[in-house]
Amino acid sequence: MLDLPAAARLYLRPIQFVDTPVGRDGEVARLAGGLAWFAAYELIAVENGRRVLQRTLSVAEADADPRFASIARRITAPRAPLTLGARTLRFDQPQVMAILNMTPDSFSDGGKHLGDPAAAAQSGVDMSIAGAAILDVGGESTRPGAETVWEGDEIARVVPVIERLAASGAAISIDTRKAAVMQAALAAGAHIVNDVSALLYDDHALEVVVRAGCPVVLMHAADPKSGAKGKGGYADPLIEIYDWLEARVDAVVAAGVDRAKIVIDPGIGFGKSLADNLALMNGLALFHGIGCPILLGASRKRIVGALANEAPAEQRLGGSLALALKGVSLGAQLFRVHDAFESVQALRVWRGMQDAALTAPHAAV
After folding, report:
1. How far apart are CA 325 and CA 332, in angstroms?
2. Burial class (CB in 10 A: 0-12, 13-18, 19+), 136
3. Do the beta carbons of residue 265 and residue 219 sit within 8 Å?
4. How many structural domains compose the chain?
5. So which residues are the catalytic ones?
């Protein structure tokens, strides 16, 4: 049996992804009940905040060692579907959450629909027709330096749009940090709360979600109130952000939220350096160990501009798709995007290749 430091905290990151499990019984595992299979884990042991061991374990080795069993089960267990009004969101294939901003100052599309809820709702319906599974409606920009919006103004921006979208039968998310906005949006027909502060900005937010019994997205962002660090503050961003999200999920569950209704988001771009964001993208599969669906919100983020000759936000489609395809290859289930049609198309092509690998001829075993 592998010798490990007694006090070390253990992590498993799925690696060595394969096209198909056909003919490889016992050699590969299915990631979170989705369309990705992998043959090994990177075992990471951390002691006193420092990695003291990293090595590769085959799936069979990990399954045979009781020290890894609970983590491995969380990684491979299918994620429960979410009931969003009349719709059911399943995580056995990648899904798109389309962004619908009702703000004058969003970094990429601010002001486009402000003051015209009918046009905003039609834009949302169009994104649903394009294949978006969820419409994420927001009335306050979360770009760096954006001013805080009074909750009354935020409600006035989002509720008329949500009411129209709810009448169309769409699945709707409310993107807000404020309890009053959550409550008004849910009453208007929203189905899921997407909070960039993981229900920590507003002291009453957790209470609203518990009482509503609705699904929630918990995102990591640099914030002194939450204890989350910012740029340059991480010795090991992948491990530290994993620990923070795992602890936050446990706290929200302890408060009364059903764990099966929690989605996690590592918060690409929220107070993190380029190096931090790249570490999160490359190590994204680690987060499956928390046992919740993963939302990736990298669309048009600064990481694209930083790697692509400082391209402005409206010219970051190619980089956004590259990040989405990286995320889906590592098992992320939900993608928050500005460009719904293009993102849905990219994910459908990826799925077509995965499906083909399952039915292609394979060597006899």
Report:
1. 9
2. buried
3. yes
4. 2
5. 301, 336
